[in-house]
Model the fold of this input.
Amino acid sequence: MTINALMLSASRVGDSAYLTHTVELIRPLTKPGQHWVFIPYAGVSVSYDEYLTKVKTALATLPISISSIHQFADPKQAIENADGVLVGGGNTFQLLNELYRYDLVHLIREKVQNGMPYVGWSAGSNITGTSIRTTNDMPIVEPPSFTALGILPFQLNPHYTNYQLPGHNGETRAQRLLEFTIVDPLTPVIGIQEGSALWRQGETLTLIGDQTAYLFHGKQQEVEIAANSDLSDYLK
Done:
């Protein structure tokens, strides 16, 4: 068994409906009759039941059934029995904190390394890197550790954009990621724009979608990565 993980930048592209653009990207990871577990822990401002309904409705054309981990008395057993896992967006700090609270970090990492398909978007993608230190989110809670799933051996920054509002004097995203590379020059960061995703299949990593991505690594700042590039070298 090999890793089969899809890291989507976002749940929407522009004005598209929720998860619409993701369905055909997720489909190759699924098989008819599978049961997948959804993890809604990042959803702070929506109830878990509402979040589940939203996801099930959006992904209804996939040949899988979906239930939420909050519906199970034993979250670890839910992961053990799942054919695949979906991890939604929201607040990355809250998501990782809950995964630690239920002792799921090591279990999910192990299951994915042994072939269980993984699909995440936004916060659900952030946690697939080595840590959540390059999330865009506010630290509304303090997880026991920033160490994440490590499905990817580098840092992710979903929703990447370096747009700056006229008259806004705060740091741009590129400036924030520069700060990261100054304090940690050895760890690459890949920023993925909305509409794109990273797909890891074993030791192959591909940027999919029609958007470029951007690399931040040491003195390399905002280096453009062409759409559909092979990024397998970043797994070494």
